[in-house]
Specification:
Strand content: under 5%
Helix content: over 70%
Structural class: mainly alpha
Number of helices: 21
Largest sheet: 2 strands, antiparallel
Radius of gyration: 22 Å
Number of strands: 2
Distance between the termini: 51 Å
Length: 497
């Protein structure tokens, strides 16, 4: 009941005209981001980070949540009409969605994707509403040793699951830890890694680093690839956007099953949207009464994966808000936004920033409705946007990034840092190093250092305190499994294939 009362208070704030406007803008921008291949929600949120200096935290996070949910839906449009997923979670949707479009049923494919996104998003947000307080209640028993072990788990999780190589992820993480130690040591008051520059005494601006790595770095990489045109033919929007009685009958169960796949897997440290969408697709193929249609445009193959994709987006917010663990690149950027406001995610977030959290959760419900009302009528507009020349997009990203960073602090030094980290972001993208672990390492390094020092002070310098305390030791064990298991699983798969 306490969660329900807090949620009602959150609705009171989320339904304020100004907050509602930010949510609407986020859903609109997010759908646009999902529609345009190569432009990710992580890049977009990074691009908007300079706004954190001007816009209240509640409005900003409501917009970010709208972008995240909108992008999860928007990727289905290009998957269906262009056979080019706008998001990694929409890859499976393309398998049947584009086949439906080629059979003249593009309207029905887009409709089942939109309604499935609404159903799954609502189920995922309900789970977030009622399960998150339980996770927080358990986590409030943490001491300094448990906090440090949780930080280690966060760091290992994001480095192990974001990227094709654990080693590359750990190297990116180490670079982030070094960046996080720049500035004045809070314990001794001594400057560290400042190279005599007064601008670095307060540390590196997370906003500048994130925008450089994700926005400028990605734009440079896409421009270097020379994508002058998108491969594939944009299908014409054919067929009614209304679902027939048979379409409803074949879609509603996949929506539910996809939601049940998406949320719990999205909430795991090794989660994401790719695994639940694949599981949903193969489950629907096994359970379908029309298995012969799979590979030729089965509506279940669109409904289930799209529901799993959107439920996973809600699942990703669970560990981010309750434990401070980002399980996707977008969550890592949102973590940097919290840092920009001086807000620490984790168990204390619900008690210290309860109004913000519950307004954010309430806005997810409202955002689902906005997306359903907004996207089907505007689908013709999204089709036209697919014809924008990519070089215009890259140039716009560079200009907006530079103007945003300079306008935030009127600092030429920060603009120099922006392009320095933009070049690093390009090189990391070029050689397949994940950028998210660098951001996470930079944010969590000071907190991990502080917790470690406090725990060692309490234990009188005994390092085994991190392993002998039951909860702390369990978290360390999970971190070790995340390091060891992925390479073993890859070797096992290679041996079988």
């Amino acid at each position: 009941m306490q969660a329900f009362d807090a949620l009602l208070t959150g609705f009171g704030s989320a339904l304020q005209p100004l907050t509602l406007m930010w949510g609407f803008a986020g859903c609109l921008i997010g759908t646009l981001v999902g529609v345009l291949p190569g432009i990710s929600p992580a890049l977009t949120i990074a691009l908007l980070l300079p706004l954190t200096y001007q816009v209240p935290a509640t409005s900003m996070f409501v917009m970010f949540a709208g972008i995240y949910y909108g992008a999860a839906y928007g990727g289905s449009t290009t998957s269906i009409l262009l056979n080019t997923p706008g998001e990694s979670g929409s890859v499976v949707t393309a398998l049947e969605g584009n086949k439906m479009a080629r059979r003249g049923r593009a309207g029905q494919a887009l409709a089942t994707a939109a309604i499935g996104s609404f159903v799954a998003g609502t189920i995922g947000t309900l789970a977030l509403t009622f399960f998150a307080p339980w996770v927080v209640e358990a986590a409030l028993a943490f001491g300094p040793a448990e906090y440090f072990s949780l930080m280690v788990l966060s760091l290992v999780a994001v480095s192990a699951v974001l990227g094709s190589s654990v080693l590359r992820g750990l190297l990116s993480l180490c670079a982030g830890l070094l960046c996080g130690l720049v500035g004045i040591d809070l314990q001794t008051g001594q400057p560290r890694f400042t190279f005599g520059r007064a601008e670095l005494l307060d540390g590196l601006e997370v906003t500048v680093v994130a925008v450089g790595l994700f926005a400028v770095g990605e734009a440079l990489y896409l421009a270097w690839q020379g994508r002058e045109s998108r491969s594939g033919e944009v299908m014409k929007l054919t067929g009614s956007l209304r679902l027939s009685r048979e379409d409803w009958a074949r879609s509603w169960k996949p929506w539910i099953r996809g939601s049940l796949f998406g949320f719990p897997i999205g909430a795991l440290p090794a989660g994401g949207a790719e695994l639940p969408t694949m599981l949903s697709y193969y489950t629907e193929k096994k359970l379908s009464k029309h298995p012969e249609e799979f590979g030729h445009g089965a509506i279940e193959g669109v409904a289930g994966p799209e529901a799993a994709n959107n439920a996973a987006a809600a699942g990703v917010l669970m560990p981010l808000l309750t434990l401070g663990i980002p399980t996707s690149a977008t969550a890592a950027i949102m973590l940097s936004a919290f840092e920009g406001y001086g807000i620490q995610t984790g168990p204390q977030l619900f008690s210290q920033q309860g109004a913000l959290v519950w307004t954010l959760v309430a806005s997810l419900y409202i955002g689902n409705v906005i997306l359903l009302v907004l996207n089907l009528p505007l689908v013709h507009l999204w089709v036209r946007l697919l014809k924008i020349p990519p070089p215009w997009l890259y140039a716009g990203i560079i200009v907006i990034s530079t103007a945003g960073v300079y306008g935030a602090g009127n600092s030429v030094f920060n603009v120099g840092l922006l392009f320095f980290f933009g070049l690093i972001g390009f090189l990391m993208r070029r050689f397949d190093f994940p950028a998210a672990p660098l951001i996470v390492g930079m944010i969590l390094a000071p907190m991990a250092e502080q917790s470690m020092r406090q725990a060692l002070t309490i234990s009188q310098g005994d390092w085994f305190t991190f392993f002998t305390r039951p909860l702390s030791g369990s978290l360390m064990a999970v971190a070790m499994l995340l390091l060891v298991l992925p390479p073993l699983i890859r070797r096992w798969r290679r041996a079988r294939s």
